[in-house]
Amino acid sequence: MTAEGRGEPQVLEQVPPATATAGDRIERAVQSVIAGKAEEIRTVLTVLLAEGHVLLEDVPGVGKTQLARAFAAAIGGTVRRIQCTPDLLPSDITGMSVLDRATGELRFQPGPVFANIVIADEINRASPKTQAALLECMAEGQVTVDGVTHLLPSPFLVVATQNPIDMEGTYALPEAQRDRFMVRLELGYPDEAAELAMVQARETVQPLDAVHPVTTEAQFRAEIDAAHAVRAHELVERYAVRLARATRQHADVRLGASPRATLQLVRAAKARAHLLGRDWLSPDDVKALAQHVLPHHLVLHDPRARHDDARAVVAQAIAGTVAPVMR
Q1: Which of 246, 227, 263 is nearest to 298 (CA)?
Q2: Cβ-proximal residues to 160 (8 Å cutoff; 6+ apart), any chain
Q3: Distance separating alpha carbons of residues 18 and 279, to the nearest angstrom
Q4: Most buried residue, 71, 77, 148, 241, by CB count within 10 Å?
């Protein structure tokens, strides 16, 4: 096999699958609120188990906020929503030190980022300075205010949304900000049957009110740890690296997938393997997640290029990189 993964595929020996996880219960709970989006729900659950973050880019009204709230309800976690506006300050997100009049001392007042699931609605309407306030939170799982570091709760997931249609009064997410998101996802409109079922179900009840925790915080933490512990053969890890490197060498790409993107791809692929009941990583896990993880990390030469163009680059990288064969 050459340096870039071309040539004859190498062969790995399979082992029996591990015990199934609690992911099915969580998925069923969320599907009771968001109908007809099984693949998207599985992808968000994968990111949550991989301790990543999701960028939802879609038109208003397709259920982005409901999706985040349903996940929080299913895992028994807290959820906070931040409506991003041009006048939003970094301290409005992270929190600030306030004077306690009783003691005369400064006391830290946590901001809305201190939750298990944080919904940053219309993130591209916030100023670059405020967007940057999320960087430490998303990358390090902590907030530093006045020189004091405060740990964020675990699990911690940022679900950021942006409207691809209305661009007036918005600030494009810089590469450094996009690089923090593990997955960029579009929900899209539901099919006719799912939309009809939604209309009929919500005439008298709110499905979100019926969602109850299907796992404890400790149990879900154990699921995250199990996903991290999925075994990855060096050949599969090398395959992920070669996919990322292939995007950097594409003629249409100015900036290819970063090493952080490679790490995110492997972490997400491990979470997928765990959800499928395996404690070992398959090349198919890497291939399945590549189209969700890699495209938004790319910067193409053409400034008019769209996300679909980046997806096409990743598809070409997948087609041109030989994967190890499992047997």
Answers
A1: 246
A2: 53, 54, 55, 56, 119, 120, 123, 181
A3: 6
A4: 71
State how far the alpha carbon of 240 is from the alpha carbons of 196, 220, 227, in Å: 41, 27, 17
Residue 37 makes CB contacts below 8 A (sequence gap 6+) with 31, 63, 67, 187, 190, 194
Distance in Å from the first CA to the final CA of the chain: 18
Sequence-ordered list of residues with C-beta below 8 angstroms from that of 273, at least 6 positions apart, any chain: 227, 230, 279, 280, 281, 282, 285
CA-based nearest residue to 312, from 270, 255, 250: 250
The CA distance from 159 to 55, in Å, is 6
Q: pLDDT-based confidence at 15, cuts 50/70/90?
A: very low
Closest CA to 296 of 261, 262, 320, 266: 261
The DSSP secondary-structure symbol of 125 reads G
What pLDDT is recorded for position 79? 84
3-state secondary structure of 5: coil
Quote the crossing angle between the two packed helices 283-293 and 259-275, to the nearest 10°: 120
Q: Cis (ω within 30 of 0) for the bond into 155? A: yes
Cα separation of 178 and 44, whole Å?
17
| Phi, then psi, of 109 in degrees rounded to 5 | -105, 110
Q: Where are the alpha helices (DSSP H) in the chain?
A: 23-31, 38-49, 64-75, 90-94, 128-140, 175-178, 192-201, 217-228, 234-248, 259-275, 283-293, 307-320
- For 17-70, what is each residue's pLDDT tens digit? 444 468 888 999 999 888 888 899 999 999 999 999 999 887 777 788 888 888
Q: Cβ atoms within 10 A of the Cβ of 200, count?
A: 9
Question: Residues 85, 115: contact at Cβ < 8 Å?
Answer: no
d(CA 216, CA 74): 9
The span from the CA of 118 to the CA of 122, in Å, is: 13
Which of 313, 316, 271 lies closest to 289, judged by CA?
271
**Residue among 124, 222, 224, 105 nearest 178 (CA):** 124
